[in-house]
């Protein structure tokens, strides 16, 4: 059966890489990108594939249950890869309810539309939910998150993602929907919205603006190149076992301050600046409330069972990322000025 895959959040950072991979690698599939185009959704991320014959875009909000039902019928959706979410921890601290609406209620709406559409035979369809390592809470100096680590979310963002994971599980147990969940560590790479650490700091270094390091800067994250995450999603979508969870990580832990210093060094070299110049922009600022000290993923299950591992080192991925931002200053300018939000009107409203 030729698949008709609904990818939600395809105009966002990770979603755009997943859409690109599936549209180009699987011409026999139809990829329907469903996205509300919030501040984080940018169709300019997909300029290179928007004309592909197996790609379609639907501007729909997950909160619109009727529109979700219609999209399943209109395109005869066979499978879902669900990435759409409010994704920024700092925003969740300011506006927790936005995260409840999209991440919890939006996910339940989507589960419900899938359940309704696929009721004749759940075994032929897959609902793949993309989650985060943040649902496991914070680690101390040692240890790793595995697939059996108890959930212990600390921010409104991670609490909303944990809740959505539980609803996915409930739909599998109660209604026998075929589901799979993956929980990934911090991604970085091209098309990353410059509110998150790495793209924000690249943009600020380019513009010689302060680099606001939260607290003591000793918080630790496990970084994964976004294209490696997209490949992991491909592998899990095709070969993962139903009702299972897979952890995805980079085997690549960095304390924030060390990462920021590496970024400064690489950017000074690439921009032809004096050695040490960008480090002078580092400014310690007030800590994030409830800041998780350390995340580290044990991704051995995914490696052992499905053969996935990251393909690039951090230095290679970071270097490619910086080069991409330096070569795509127009994208950065459109994103920081808000101009990208006109792209949908220009490209889609007269079609
Ligand atoms: P992002 O913020 O860049 O993109 C989210 C996308 O979802 C945007 O295109 C936005 O327009 C869309 N969206 C938001 N609310 C919507 C709604 N109500 N209806 C329809 N569309 C809506 O996010 P990202 O960083 O690409 O993350 C994608 C997914 O991966 C999320 O589920 C996130 O929790 C998860 N994740 C992210 C990371 C990371 O490091 N960025 C790591 C692990 C897991
Ligand atoms: O772990 C996966 C998660 O990674 C995803 O689920 C989230 O969607 C994604 O946003 C990311 O969450 P983080 O909170 O880890 O990412 P962020 O880029 O916001 O912050 C990374 C670290 O850098 C964190 O310790 C906070 C710190 N930081 C962040 C910003 C934006 C700063 O010190 N200064 C900053 O200005």
Set down the secondary structure blueprint:
Blueprint: E1 4-8, H1 13-25, E2 30-35, E3 55-59, H2 65-75, E4 79-82, H3 89-94, H4 96-117, E5 126-132, H5 156-175, E6 179-184, E7 186-188, H6 197-206, E8 211-214, E9 220-225, H7 226-239, E10 245-248, E11 253-255, H8 256-271, E12 282-285, H9 300-306, H10 314-327, H11 329-337, H12 343-348
Parallel strand pairs: 1-2, 1-4, 2-3, 4-5, 5-6, 6-10, 7-9, 8-12
Antiparallel strand pairs: 9-11
Helix pairs in contact: 1-7, 2-4, 4-5, 6-8, 8-10
Protein model, in words:
The chain is α/β, with parallel strands linked by helices and 351 residues long. The protein folds into two domains: 4-188 and 223-248, 3-Layer(aba) Sandwich (Rossmann fold), CATH 3.40.50; 197-220 and 253-290 and 313-344, UDP-galactose 4-epimerase, domain 1. It has twelve helices and twelve strands. The chain has helices at 13-25, 65-75, 89-94, 96-117, 156-175, 197-206, 226-239, 256-271, 300-306, 314-327, 329-337, 343-348; strands spanning 4-8, 30-35, 55-59, 79-82, 126-132, 179-184, 186-188, 211-214, 220-225, 245-248, 253-255, 282-285. The strands form three sheets. Strands 3-2-1-4-5-6-10 form a seven-stranded parallel beta sheet, sandwiched between helices. Helix 1 links the parallel strand 1 and strand 2. 2'deoxy-thymidine-5'-diphospho-alpha-D-glucose (DAU) binds at residues 87-89, 132-134, 185-186, 196-197, 200, 212-214, 219, 221, 256, 288, 295. 2'deoxy-thymidine-5'-diphospho-alpha-D-glucose binds next to helix 6 and strand 8.
Brief write-up:
With 351 residues, the chain is α/β, with parallel strands linked by helices. It has helices spanning 13-25, 65-75, 89-94, 96-117, 156-175, 197-206, 226-239, 256-271, 300-306, 314-327, 329-337, 343-348, and strands at 4-8, 30-35, 55-59, 79-82, 126-132, 179-184, 186-188, 211-214, 220-225, 245-248, 253-255, 282-285. 42% of the residues lie in helices and 16% in strands.
């Amino acid at each position: 059966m030729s698949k008709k895959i609904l990818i939600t959040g395809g105009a966002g950072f990770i979603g755009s890489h997943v859409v690109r991979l599936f549209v180009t690698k699987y011409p026999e599939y139809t990829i329907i990108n469903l996205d509300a185009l919030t501040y984080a959704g940018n169709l300019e991320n997909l300029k290179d594939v928007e004309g592909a014959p197996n790609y379609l875009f639907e501007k729909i909000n997950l909160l619109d249950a009727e529109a979700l039902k219609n999209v399943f019928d209109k395109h005869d959706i066979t499978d879902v890869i669900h990435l759409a979410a409010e994704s920024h921890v700092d925003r969740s601290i300011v506006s927790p309810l936005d995260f409840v609406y999209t991440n919890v209620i939006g996910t339940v709406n989507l589960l419900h539309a899938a359940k309704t559409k696929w009721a004749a035979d759940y075994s032929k369809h897959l609902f793949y939910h993309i989650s985060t390592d943040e649902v496991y809470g914070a680690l101390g100096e040692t240890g790793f998150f595995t697939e059996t680590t108890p959930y212990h979310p600390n921010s409104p963002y991670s609490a909303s993602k944990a809740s959505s994971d539980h609803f996915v599980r409930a739909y599998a147990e109660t209604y026998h929907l075929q589901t799979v969940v993956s929980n990934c560590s911090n991604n970085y790479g091209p098309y990353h919205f410059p509110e998150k650490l790495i793209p924000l700091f690249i943009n600020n270094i380019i513009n010689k603006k302060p680099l606001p390091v939260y607290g003591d800067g000793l918080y630790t994250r496990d970084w994964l190149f976004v294209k490696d995450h997209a490949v992991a999603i491909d592998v899990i979508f095709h070969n993962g076992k139903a009702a299972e969870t897979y952890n995805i990580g980079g085997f690549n832990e960095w304390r924030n301050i060390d990462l920021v210093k590496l970024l400064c060094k690489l950017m000074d070299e690439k921009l032809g600046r004096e050695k040490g110049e960008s480090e002078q922009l580092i400014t310690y600022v007030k800590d994030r409330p409830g800041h998780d000290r350390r995340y580290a993923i044990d991704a051995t299950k995914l490696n052992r069972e499905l053969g996935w591992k990251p393909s690039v080192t951090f230095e290679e991925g970071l270097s490619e990322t910086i080069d991409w931002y330096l070569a795509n200053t127009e994208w950065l300018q459109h994103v920081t000025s808000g101009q990208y939000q006109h792209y949908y009107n220009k490209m889609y409203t007269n079609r």
